[in-house]
Design a protein that fits this description.
98 residues; mainly beta; five-stranded antiparallel sheet; 9 strands; globular
Length: 98
């Protein structure tokens, strides 16, 4: 999966283990959930960590929901579920890998 480089230029908050935002380990880095966005450190600034396209998580039989046991994070206009180092989002009858 590719990730778009979308600099979050107006972001003055410094994320870290004690900043109070949820940490999400993702693709070899850590994202921080902040105001419905996922931020990651990159080259001295913060980027929006967004997938670079539609990536279906094939073979995902588990149905996520309020009581599934996986952490939920608000991401834009939907909810992602943290599962095995991935963020899953329901999309048109399947799960996307964010």
């Amino acid at each position: 999966m590719t990730t778009l480089h979308l600099e979050h230029s107006a972001h003055t908050h410094t994320h870290g283990p004690d900043c109070g935002h949820t940490e999400v380990r993702h693709g070899g880095h850590v994202d921080y959930v902040h105001d419905g966005h996922l931020h990651r450190a990159h080259g001295g600034h913060w980027d929006e960590c967004e997938p670079g396209g539609h990536v279906t998580h094939d073979g995902h039989e588990h149905r996520h929901g309020e009581d599934c046991g996986h952490a939920r994070v608000r991401h834009g206009d939907h909810v992602d579920y943290l599962h095995d180092g991935h963020r899953h989002a329901e999309h048109e009858g399947h799960w996307d890998d964010h």
